[in-house]
């Protein structure tokens, strides 16, 4: 998840390097926006070191360019302001915008979490409470201040919540609202290798990038994901994914059928071999002749098999075509009893195997929705959004 952490000028800012470390450890990409007054309590160098990203504190960059607050806001999946002082709360509640953090906040469409921090009398003041209520009415999530000893020496409510509690609050809140919460999704990805002998195989150029992107995004949206992955060198796989590696089409068939029975959604993006050698030589075949004849037989059609077994599950297939793309994809959709099929064409530059981008058309019985060329992480979001519309 892409997280912007906005830090304002309160003593609780000293806790933020630990907060950043915890977020990064959980696999999030964190960019820090530091107000000028916050620099009195924590240094940009410290935050840049723990976040592994340059800290933003003004509209102007170190090389005399500018920090585009609109791009920052669009980049973020979540905006966290911690600590949020009474001054910053008042500005947020009343539309005042005098720094890059506030400009980013007012541009953001992502969920915003606010962790206020101030002395107890300030926290209890009617204007602060009114501002917090107003911010809640805008859809912001307020992480309540904690009770304890304050910088003034007084004891009461006003301490910024501890970093661990902030993260727990966010994760609990998000998990209840994730679109795929409670769903089990089965995804196949990558190629299959069909052995000729112990050292040679029939394969294809699939890398599994698209299927892995789907699996990663489905986990982020709250699903329990089982990824059945053919031979692939890709390592960017979320640690919450249940990963099962397979080699051949028969391996993938067996693993897929076993998981399909308990799945809510199955997305079969793997490039499964259509044929396999009828006889697999037990020893390496020596080069004796100028040619070698191999007899090939059909592999099991996994997608068609699941289409026959399908009950309540949604079944989504993939079609990589080179001619009559839409027509061939629709034939596959109907023949294999699919709920939808994702079409991509090798004629489209930037689509297909081995690239970080893809260009797809999402096809159902009644509709075709085409998308422009995008990064596969964004394509995964588009596909899952379309699948959610099917239920």
Automatic annotation (TrEMBL):
Record field: catalytic activity: (R)-4'-phosphopantothenate + L-cysteine + CTP = N-[(R)-4-phosphopantothenoyl]-L-cysteine + CMP + diphosphate + H(+); N-[(R)-4-phosphopantothenoyl]-L-cysteine + H(+) = (R)-4'-phosphopantetheine + CO2
Name the residues that bind CTP.
274, 284, 318, 332, 336
The cofactor binding remark recorded in the entry reads: Binds 1 FMN per subunit.
Any idea which GO molecular function terms this record carries?
FMN binding; metal ion binding; phosphopantothenate--cysteine ligase activity; phosphopantothenoylcysteine decarboxylase activity
Q: Where is the Flavoprotein domain?
A: 1-170
Cofactors needed by this protein, per the record, are: FMN; Mg(2+)
> Where does the record place the region Phosphopantothenoylcysteine decarboxylase?
1-184
Q: Where is this region: Phosphopantothenate--cysteine ligase?
A: 185-391
Question: Which domain of life does this protein belong to?
Answer: Bacteria
- Role description: Catalyzes two sequential steps in the biosynthesis of coenzyme A. In the first step cysteine is conjugated to 4'-phosphopantothenate to form 4-phosphopantothenoylcysteine. In the second step the latter compound is decarboxylated to form 4'-phosphopantotheine.
User: What PANTHER family does UniProt report for this protein, alphabetically?
Assistant: HOMO-OLIGOMERIC FLAVIN CONTAINING CYS DECARBOXYLASE FAMILY, PHOSPHOPANTOTHENOYLCYSTEINE DECARBOXYLASE
Q: What is this protein called?
A: Coenzyme A biosynthesis bifunctional protein CoaBC
UniProt lineage: Bacteria, Pseudomonadati, Bacteroidota, Flavobacteriia, Flavobacteriales
What's the encoding gene here?
A: coaBC
